[in-house]
Amino acid sequence: GVEVGPQPQGVARADILDKMRKIVKHGLDFVQLFNEGKEFPPCTIEVFKIMEKVDYPRNKNDEITAIIHPKLQDQDWQPLNNGDPLFLTLDGEVIPYQGNCTVYPTFINEAAYYEKKQAFVKTEKIKLTAKHLRCSAS
């Protein structure tokens, strides 16, 4: 599957549709070249691995008590370091990120995840290495 976004539910955006078309085309091109016997050299790519889902701060009645800090909003895939602003309470208090390593949040403040108790997902940036690849069928 391919998920390209972000975009609000029920909204069709031309820029997102264009990105989706390009990624599907690249995938189909790869399949065609692979089936034709093209050899692909080894490669390394940076990816984001999900670490954990992070909920909003809540009170004893399970009500949200803080929102995403404005400096974090719309910063998907950007580094979040210890001490950076994370949440903002309804009283204006900043709740900083407290972590022992840099993380890369994504799905920040997505409306579809409120009911799932997810303010964002913490990811870590890692490198994956692939060996050369070639179709073995004749």
From TrEMBL:
<dbReference type="InterPro" id="IPR007036">
    <property type="entry name" value="Aste_AspA_hybrid_dom"/>
</dbReference>
<keyword id="KW-0862">Zinc</keyword>
<dbReference type="GO" id="GO:0005829">
    <property type="term" value="C:cytosol"/>
</dbReference>
<protein>
    <submittedName>
        <fullName>ACY2 Aspartoacylase</fullName>
    </submittedName>
</protein>
<dbReference type="GO" id="GO:0016811">
    <property type="term" value="F:hydrolase activity, acting on carbon-nitrogen (but not peptide) bonds, in linear amides"/>
</dbReference>
<keyword id="KW-0479">Metal-binding</keyword>
<dbReference type="Pfam" id="PF04952">
    <property type="entry name" value="AstE_AspA_hybrid"/>
</dbReference>
<feature type="domain" description="AstE/AspA barrel-sandwich hybrid">
    <location>
        <begin position="44"/>
        <end position="125"/>
    </location>
</feature>
<keyword id="KW-0378">Hydrolase</keyword>
<dbReference type="InterPro" id="IPR050178">
    <property type="entry name" value="AspA/AstE_fam"/>
</dbReference>
<dbReference type="GO" id="GO:0046872">
    <property type="term" value="F:metal ion binding"/>
</dbReference>
